[in-house]
UniProtKB/TrEMBL annotation:
SUPFAM superfamilies: Outer membrane efflux proteins (OEP). This is TolC family protein. Pfam families: OEP (PF02321). Its main location: membrane. Gene3D superfamilies: Outer membrane efflux proteins (OEP). The keyword Methyltransferase does not apply. It comes from Flavobacterium suzhouense. The lineage of its organism: Bacteria, Pseudomonadati, Bacteroidota, Flavobacteriia, Flavobacteriales. Belongs to the outer membrane factor (OMF) (TC 1.B.17) family. It is found in: Cell outer membrane. It comes from the Bacteria. Keywords: Cell outer membrane, Membrane, Signal, Transmembrane, Transmembrane beta strand, Transport.
């Protein structure tokens, strides 16, 4: 059942929805037609445009580059180098030939070397561990993006329903303002004809003034709430929006399900964090293992009394090549217990995450239990408040009729109007409480994505 229709049926003298919308500040000033915004539209718009959602998607993309970086350590590294050296003074070396020592200058004034080198890890436990952690890294960022989307959806849904309630409250106060003005006009006519007291006219004028101030404040609150909704979905603030009536319905949810909270993004993200800590521990433990690598290089060197570039042996410049291939073995023997300390620190991270997992599980179970309990209470409150609105409307109609026939005082009439407004507010607040609890229940079931469909 639509909320606006509920109020139309309960308020015989209510304003038409179109009149209320046109009365909202800023609506008449818009040159462009207002954009209809359903909850589905708002959520999907936020997932496409809101900063947090976009950054989460970028983090997933960045994870792929981090994985490529890890994989690069298992691939060969090839580099080229070159240099040109001028030796103004060539070092002399003392050489004993058996018949005396002579000083010999070893080298040339000029030398230039160009070469290519290759390095390949053959065995490095940290590289293997990093490759195994790559998949978990990707999954971590994917779950994090999923959690971010849920947080965006929850925030948008809550603000969307707040806007809707604010619009209903504006409708209620506007309707009561119009009715009270009509009563004021009747009393003024009676006063002009000597049939009413000045105090009665003053009191009703005060009531009209208070209602006018209240609806002005409510409109301001509505505008601020709409702007907050636009902010939370990443929509330009100047965009005019209108919410369709069909969005605010009481749709009882199944309360008999027992969701598996370990499948919720909050829990799965922490599980991935634990897996990454475990890989981090293995990476630290890799320092206990030996490493084996292959290096190879090929170089071309030119030496002579002149700058060797573009020179031949006829100018005293000689070019030769040389190459080397090596196997490098590193065996850790003693590191001063530094590696052991790092391993134990990594183990502490794992154990802390295990405790966080237990606490998260309890927190998620509690959230579901509280949401379910609030849903039950809210449904009861909605039924009670709806009945109160109906009764308050009947009382107000009777008192208005009695007042016009001189059978009720102005105090009775104002009290009846106040009771009617209060019952309407209580009803809308009960609806809002229900819808917010509904969002929490859907979240506890891990079904927030259904709001995008």
């Amino acid at each position: 059942m639509k909320i606006i229709n509920d109020f139309k049926s309960l308020t015989a003298k209510g304003l038409a929805l179109l009149t209320v919308i046109l009365a909202i500040p800023g609506m008449q000033a818009q040159t462009a037609p207002a954009q209809e915004l359903t909850l589905k539209d708002a959520v999907n718009y936020a997932l496409q445009n809101k900063l947090e959602a976009r950054k989460a998607k970028l983090a997933v993309e960045n994870a792929e580059y981090q994985i490529q970086e890890v994989r690069s350590r298992a691939l060969p590294s090839i580099s080229a180098s070159g240099n040109l050296t001028y030796n103004p003074i060539i070092q002399q070396t003392a050489v004993d030939f058996g018949q005396g020592t002579q000083l010999l200058a070893l080298g040339q004034k000029w030398s230039s070397v160009a070469g290519v080198s290759l390095t390949q890890n053959i065995f490095d436990q940290s590289v293997f561990t990093g490759l195994r952690a790559a998949k978990t890294t990707r999954e971590f960022y994917q779950v994090n993006a999923e959690l971010t989307d849920e947080q965006v959806i929850e925030r948008v849904a809550n603000n969307y329903y707040n806007v809707y309630v604010q619009r209903i409250q504006v409708t209620v106060v506007d309707s009561n303002y119009v009715n009270t003005v009509k009563i004021r006009d009747i009393i003024k006519g009676q006063f002009d004809n000597g049939l009413a007291k000045r105090i009665d006219l003053d009191r009703i004028n005060v009531t009209v003034s208070n209602l006018d101030a209240e609806r002005t404040q409510l409109r301001s609150n509505l505008e601020q709430q709409e702007n907050a909704l636009k902010f939370f979905i990443g929509m330009p603030i100047q965009t005019a929006i209108v919410l369709p009536d069909t969005q605010f319905e009481v749709t009882p949810q199944s309360l008999n399900d027992t969701p598996d909270t370990t499948q919720l993004p909050q829990y799965r993200l922490m599980q991935k964090q634990k897996e990454l800590y475990e890989f981090n521990k293995k990476a630290v433990q890799a320092a206990y293992y030996p490493t084996l690598s292959l290096t190879a290089g090929y170089n071309y060197i030119g030496q002579g009394p002149k700058m060797p570039w573009f020179q031949l042996s006829s100018a005293g410049v000689y070019w030769t090549d040389f190459s080397a291939i090596a196997m490098n073995l590193h065996i850790p023997i003693f590191t001063g217990f530094g590696t052991r300390a790092k391993v134990r620190q990594a183990d502490i991270d794992i154990r802390e995450t295990e405790e966080d997992l237990k606490d998260t599980k309890l927190s998620l179970d509690l959230a579901y239990s509280n949401a379910k309990s609030q849903m039950v209470v809210s449904l009861t409150n909605i039924a009670n408040q709806k009945e109160n609105v109906k009764l308050a409307q009947e009382v107000l109609d009777d008192v208005q009729n009695n007042y016009q026939n001189g059978l009720a005082s102005l105090t009775d009439l104002l009290d009846a109007e106040t009771s009617y407004i209060t019952s309407q507010r209580n009803y809308t607040n009960a609806l809002l409480t229900y819808k917010l609890a509904e969002v929490q229940l859907i979240k506890a079931k891990g079904e927030l994505k259904t709001l995008t469909n």
